Amino acid sequence: MSSPQVGPEKDPAERSENATAMIVAGWMCWMFMLLVLFFEPAARRYNKSEIMAWIGGVLGVVGLALNIMGYVIRKRA
Questions:
Q1: What does pTM read for this prediction?
Q2: Who's near 54: CB < 8 A, 6+ residues apart?
Q3: Which of 15, 24, 33, 35 has CA 20 to 30 A from 8's CA?
Q4: What's the domain count of the chain?
């Protein structure tokens, strides 16, 4: 059995696939963030808008970070 390669030894095709997966995950975080923002007016009714803002903010930051890392890795591959 061969051990999995880590770091710069990975072939470019595998790094490109990993980068694409990170980009897709980043966009999915953004889509969920938009869904949270869509339901935010309903949260105001129950005084939960602060929680919704935190959830949306975290999803936005994580999505942005995944997209940036994915594009950087894809450019290097």
A1: 0.79
A2: none
A3: 24
A4: 1
